[in-house]
Amino acid sequence: MKIYPLNQFLLLKKNTPSGVFAIYLNIAIRTTALSLVNIFIPIYLFLEAQSYFGNDIIIGLYGVAAYYFIDRLAALIFTVPAAQFIFHFGFRGSIFLSNFFLVLTLVFLNAAAHNPIYFILAAVAGGAVTPFYWIAYHTIFAGDGIIDNFGQEISRANIISSLAYVIGPGLGGVIIVFYGFPVLFVSALLIVLLSGLPFLFAPNLPQKNHPVSYPEILEWLKNPSHQNEEIAYFGRHIFEIVGGFFYPIFMFLIAKSFERIGFLTSLSFLLGIIATYFAGRAGDKYKGPWLLKFGSLVTFFIWLGRSLTTQFWQLATLDLSMKSLGAFYSVPFDSMTYQRSRNKDENVLTFITAREIIVSFVYFLTFFIVGLIIPFDWRWKGIFGLAALGSLLSIKMWEKED
After folding, report:
1. Which end of the chain is more exposed for a tag (fewer CB within 10 A), N or C?
2. Looking at residue 257, what is its pLDDT?
3. Torsions phi, psi for 218 (to 5 deg)
4. Are the C-beta atoms of residues 394 and 234 closer than 8 Å to each other?
5. What are the boundaries of each domain within the chain?
6. Cβ proximity of 163 and 35 under 8 Å
């Protein structure tokens, strides 16, 4: 196994399969756009729900949960059609179509400030983005990547993403304060339009795949050899749902400032870049479960700490810790996912598509549980405790069925 020095690690095309290199360029552009808005969209939904239906934290949280429930329901409906589209028309068409839906999402979110029906349209369009982009993304990595260097390829992608997040959230917070959400959404939209261009020069079809069908997906999900993977995906995405949709609102309630949230997020990603680089090297060098177990335990305790947070300095300390140490959770998990998809004697596209279906059901169950928790005063302890449990369940990725 070759360990690349840092200058080769970052973006030298000669060390990178062409499909993966196109992903790197796409990430650099697409994430620049998303880094402006991602941390603020849940807060926007929270505040708009309160403005339409009543100034109450419970109403705001239910509004956020309802939006992302519709988003994921649309994602589930589009999942198998997206996989079939990728097989017949290739990655390029899928990426460009996902960009079209992403542009619609931003347009509808902006319009929703004047008519709440656009929130539903935005959620449906956002749900369509997920399978058309992420199935293509993961299948390119799993099918075109170098299996012994998955850790470095994943961490390279994460570093490129994090570089955008070093600037984007801070800039996004400033834009909101001085110009408002409409200018923020338009700025992100214009950058999204450019992000599909790298795929004009990339391979268009996945290798060694056949069309995905509903019976094949069902057979995959019922296969006992996939049980631990399914549990691990369940845990990982509880972590991501809470971290992506509810934690930003918690940040806003404590920080009470878009600029503070933006600049804290930017600083956290700056520290995360360094950790991600070393996590990728460690993930390829040491193949055992210890790295994922370490990352899972660390993030478990950080989530528990967040449940007790009441001051901004506590929030900042734990956020910086999560971004820097969380790489030792996410990188080995994703690396193992791609290795499993290649090591098993099965269709890579089917593997990734089945994974997305599992994720959809994780969303539905998580939102159901969170919905039960929201009315209580201990809501944040319960929600963050759920994310902590997800960290521990992720360890199942390293356990194999007999």
Report:
1. C
2. 93
3. -60, -40
4. no
5. 17-398
6. no
Q: Where are the beta strands (DSSP E) in 255-392?
A: none
Structure tokens at 75: 């994602």
Among 142, 141, 149, smallest CA distance to 3 is for: 149
Q: Which two tokens stand for residue 375?
A: 């009315």
Token pair for residue 334?
Answer: 């994703």
CA dist., res. 266 & res. 366, Å (int): 28
Q: What is the pLDDT of residues 18-68, one digit of tens each?
A: 556 777 788 888 899 999 999 999 999 999 999 999 889 999 999 999 999
pTM of the model: 0.86
3-state secondary structure of 17: coil
CA dist 286 and 291 (Å) reads 8
How many Å apart are CA 135 and CA 91, to the nearest integer? Answer: 9
For the stretch 298-334, pLDDT in tens is 999 999 999 999 999 999 999 999 988 887 787 777 7
Q: What CATH number belongs to 17-398?
A: 1.20.1250.20
For residue 44, what are the contacts with CB-CB under 8 A and spacing of at least 6? 109, 181
Which two three-digit tokens encode residue 393?
């369940």
Spatial separation of the C-alpha atoms in residues 38 and 35, rounded to whole Å: 6
